[in-house]
Amino acid sequence: MPLTPSVPARPDPAASHRAIENLIARYAELVDGGDFAGLGELLAGATFTGSGSPVSGADAIEEMFRRTLIVYGDGTPRTKHVTTNVIIELDDDTAAARSYVTVYQALPELPLQPIAVGRYHDRFACDGTSWRFTERRVHIDLVGDVSRHLRAAAG
């Protein structure tokens, strides 16, 4: 019997949508939990572009978050990232997504309030079994009091 290379099955659209939504939610969970090593792992194969130069690679992304975000005694930035209006466009084993993000923060001396509102533009790839980020671009449209969230704003 001749050997033929296996062709990965085309990703199921419904399962793909759910997997991509989970990646988007996982990002928020990791940021809000102060798990910057986890963010590096999640985005290891991606290029991250925020307010600075694009960053790639797990170690560089982890370090960028450590340099940028203020972390409090509980090990978190005391934020909640709420992602809404998620639009996912599939194309075989790649996908693009757009979504809105609202970042809330509260501290003993800071009442709960939105501190930033913006958009995520993401790209993903599927290796036949799982989806992963290949790009995350963050566009912040409205900024509130980020002095207790971003190191540059605090200094």
TrEMBL record:
<dbReference type="InterPro" id="IPR032710">
    <property type="entry name" value="NTF2-like_dom_sf"/>
</dbReference>
<dbReference type="InterPro" id="IPR037401">
    <property type="entry name" value="SnoaL-like"/>
</dbReference>
<feature type="domain" description="SnoaL-like">
    <location>
        <begin position="15"/>
        <end position="137"/>
    </location>
</feature>
<dbReference type="Pfam" id="PF13577">
    <property type="entry name" value="SnoaL_4"/>
</dbReference>
<protein>
    <submittedName>
        <fullName>Nuclear transport factor 2 family protein</fullName>
    </submittedName>
</protein>
